[in-house]
Amino acid sequence: MTDPTTLVEARLGHDNWGVLGQQGYVLGLDIGGYGVRAALVDLHAGRYTSMHRDTSERGPRLADEAIALGQALLATQPGAAERLVRVGAGFGGPIDTARGEVLLAPRTPGWEGFPLRERLEGAFGAAAIVDNDANLIALAEALFGAGRDIQHLFYLHLSTGVGGGLVLNGHLYRGANTTAGEIGHAAIAIADAAADPPTLEHILSISGLLRRAAALGLTTDRLDVIFGDDPVARRVVAEATEQLALTLAQIAALLDPQRIVVGGVVARSGGTAFLDAVRQRVQAYVGHAVIRHTTPIVASELGFDSVAIGGLAVALQSLSE
């Protein structure tokens, strides 16, 4: 994983971000499940800085903690708060990007209908853009990370949930209802009368992997155990590898992206060995009559700051639109 400072600052010097692209500051925020993160770009100097704060808060007050962190980061740069031109923020759930409101927080009730954009604009006095975290990671990787040399990319996020984001022609594709890419909630088996069909998130999220291990007799709450040498753990990872390979082959067939990027704490825990195994098994599911090339599958590069960097990315693109 490359230092994100190097990646972001290298790209800043090669792009024209519109009329405001050579002045002021742009702020990115991660309002997520692993604390809050903020990233700041000085457009004139081409300089990137970031800040992180752990928190136990999961409800709407998390927005206030993210705002406080963003303000603290702005305070480290004299005059930055007064020269802030745009804010971009990512949230761990579906977002109505047109209204700037949270549609749903699958793992934390109480966020539904929360006016996130309005809250951010009131706090910072600058126009704000809010979006789903996986969408923003997709755009961040497309601009600054593993997809910085391409135009068409799909990003798959494996963490407490499973999400995705799609970049077409260098821009986010959000779909008719701003929920494009939410592949984690799609069923992966035919439904029966006894239960709801399992979803990709049910299989490949952190809780899904731990739950499968427990069902096979291995009780743990640690991903390093899941990706360890225990025979049950190896079976769980083999099943996850097969399901992920099938899903990525379907994505390649449907979208034909130039690159598929896989990230999130599950992918980081599995490391190179996990992704190599997935690449190998994808070949078993690729329809060679349709696909005459192999879509590269690569690891994300931006690490823990990726959502906040995605906030920067969507804010920077908005300056030239």
| Topology order in helix (H) and strand (E) letters | HEEEHEEEHEHEEEHHHHEHEH
In angstroms, what separates the terminal alpha carbons? 31 Å
Mean pLDDT: 91
Number of strands: 12
Contiguous helical run count = 10
Q: Would you give the CATH topology of the largest domain?
A: Nucleotidyltransferase, domain 5
Class of secondary structure makeup: alpha/beta
The helical percent reads 25-40%
Strand content: 15-25%
Provide the low-confidence segments as ranges. none
Shape: globular
| Whole-number tally of structural domains | 2
What does this structure look like?
Helices cover 37% and strands 19% of the residues. The longest helix is centred in the C-terminal third of the chain and has 25 residues, at 231-255. The chain has 321 residues and is of the alpha/beta class. A hairpin with a 3-residue loop joins strand 8 and strand 9. The strands form three sheets. Strands 3-2-1-4-7 form a five-stranded mixed β-sheet, with helices on both faces. A five-stranded mixed β-sheet has the order 10-9-8-11-12, sandwiched between helices.
